[in-house]
Fold this sequence. Notes:
By secondary structure, the chain is of the alpha+beta class.
Amino acid sequence: MTYSRLETEDFARPIDEAEAEAYLRGICFKTGPPRLLGVELEWLVHDLSDPARPVSAPRLAAAADRLRSLPLRSWLTIEPGGQIELSSRPAESLASCVADLSADLSLARSALRDLGLVLAGYGKEPWYEPDRVLMKPRYDAMEIYYDRINDAGSTVMCRTASVQVCVDAGYEEPGPMGYGRRWRLAHLLGAVLAAAFANSPLHLGKPTGWRSTRQACYSRMDPGRTLAPAEDLEPRSAWAAYALDAPVMFVRSEAGPWSVPQGLALRRWVRTGRPRPVTRGDVDYHLTTLFPPIRPRGHLELRMIDAQPGEDGWLVPVAVTAALFDDATAAETAHRVVQALAGTAGMRTAPRNPLWLNAARHGLSDPELHAAAVVCFAAAREALPRLGAPPRVLAAVDEFTERYVERRRCPADDLLDHVNGKESH
């Protein structure tokens, strides 16, 4: 993205609290007809012949260089632990989104295979503990910040992968496709998606007691940046307050390491102007350090889905999520079904409330989440032909539903069966 001279100057100009709040309120929900779909696919990188063998930093660097040379349609990002992320361009249909990402994945898999590597779809590295391989000021500062709290932040940063689905915020007006209802839907439906697609039950090859250890880590991390905003406020007000009250992870500097303050909320930094005045660019960068389960970035970024196994596993959460948000009939069914989950969620916000903790710990073996998933997957499957889903997507959804949803299972259960010496079907 390029900016004009005036825009660049505006990013560097000091900003006061009222301007910061107005800016945050103005960018979080861009309303209009739900039309675009985006996907961010994160993958772990494994040795092709021995998945449990750690991949060295030089091999990961060679893999990154090879992928950067490819004519990809998606944006390529290398995560701190060497994970590969492909972010689709905003697509006007599910079919075009799937086609672009599939083409890029084919190129990426072929290139990595030549290096003896493979993309691995797990929500958390199951066999070993990857070290951080990206030595950049951002990640140096993040590691210092997280290590003051516990090990969950570093685990998420270096050892996890996800499928993140981005849907439009919705209409300004109230109603089934209004942004307020879609925002509330996401915070209940998100638990169903987390349970259905849980795929991170192991640490160093042993069960952790969680179907989604990745989601359990998010529930342990810094609550000021990983919990959902307050639910008793209008969504724009809630997000602006959340961002202003969130701790500043670091203060960027052009010279030397970035400073990592303790207990400095963005609001106080803006008010005091210390250690230096806050710019609009600082506010934008601060937003990249906030990791609630649903992040409003103009659109809604759903962040709770673990990376999925198999070459086509990622298709299912993308298709099901798109259908439940963007098909009016399916969205109405999902809204009705998940309202019954609000009592379990209670007053605490995701992902630390009982509903989300049940999803992370039990997956679809939880009776309440299983019942909701059965109805939601059926509604999504009925809607997908209306959204123009290609046969490959329909087949993947059918297979997943039969293998997991109908049997009260999630992909994590296959891994658990594997380490426990059981057959999974």
